[in-house]
Amino acid sequence: MTSAVVLEHPGLLPGSLGAAAPRQQRRTARDWLVDSFCFLVSLGWVILATFDAASPSPALAEQLPYDWMIVGEALLGLVCTLALWFRRRWPLGLALVTLPLAMFSVTSVAAVLIIYFTVVVHRRAAVALAVTAAGLFTNLFFALLRPEPGNPYWVSTVWGMVITLLVLAWGLFVRARRQLVLSLRERAERAEAEQQLRVAQARQLERTRIAREMHDVLAHRISLLSLHAGALEFRPDAPASEVARAAGVIRDSAHAALQDLREVIGVLRAEVLLPEDPERPQPTLGDLPALVAESRTAGIRVDLRDQVSAPDRLPVAVGRSVYRIVQEGLTNARKHASGAAVTVGLSGAPGDGLSVEIRNRWPVGESTGVPIPGTGTGLVGIAERVNLAGGRLEHGRDEHGDFRLAAWLPWPAP
Questions:
Q1: Are the beta carbons of 135 and 13 closer than 8 angstroms?
Q2: pTM (predicted TM-score)
Q3: Are the C-beta atoms of residues 121 and 171 closer than 8 Å to each other?
Q4: How many CB atoms lie within 10 A of CB 63?
Q5: TM segments (predicted)?
Q6: Which of 110, 130, 144, 243 has its CA 20 to 30 A from that of 329?
């Protein structure tokens, strides 16, 4: 009976003093299992306490002198036990209703403790502490109204306080653990969302990078095509062999330009660009001679001066940047200085960096052909590329009046 008296006190847990109850969700299989267990425990306690109250004990006969009191006590316990099925929806309300029972009812002790525990778990700590204080106060009356035979008043009261505080500590522990699990789950979901965002950003950056690469290639090919077409227009009486050769170059350049354009459109339209998707081989420093030869075929006088030491040790990214810089320089020369000789100079060594310079005479007079259209962003893209690589870029007329495009790229020593 002493333990029963002590348990009763927790009933005051009436709970969540002001926290709004969360929107009720449908019970899960685990919820049904836990609620059924709590119901059976409370029902078992009601049966045990009822049989104990009905036993021929002089002390109990003094507390419950009439049979209807025993029946009423059992009914109170059964009502509280049935109320456990609604504790998830109205924990605070049930706690407030059952609080007065903590002063005299033994059969409702188990149900009151369970409701109190629910309030502690699902309400703020301040609310739980307020309910605990009310429960401790109620426990003072329980020891007076239902004294336990053989135990003084203060012993029963202290036991009630201890059990109440134990339930409070257990509830706070469960609440903290659930919050920790929820926090870890939210962190995991946030990390997954951030990872997906990083993947999406990486894909977008990759699409942008490929589109920028294809812009350089496409501008180069279109300028070649325009140059040959202009030559045919300017020399309609050229020998048949030259016309056929120029037409073949135009056809090949147009075909390559269409292929490049198809790739650009495919990249920009792609919803997903997987890292393992195959990518066309990127040019390196070793592809410069072919680029220069292509320009010479188009009728551009190009002088390549390669003074790079240990080119096989040049990083691939640096070699690709050099290729794009030279490609842009030759494209600009064809657009703005048609017929001018172009000098391409390369020099550098590991640890000293790599310098590239494209120089051509400034055009004199009006252009005789139709100007080659362009976006005007080629040098902007090259400047961005060089800046990202940690290098320097210069372009404009020098002291001799020539147009000069020069860049320096870092080449770390091995």
A1: yes
A2: 0.43
A3: yes
A4: 18
A5: 32-54, 66-86, 93-119, 125-145, 152-173
A6: 243
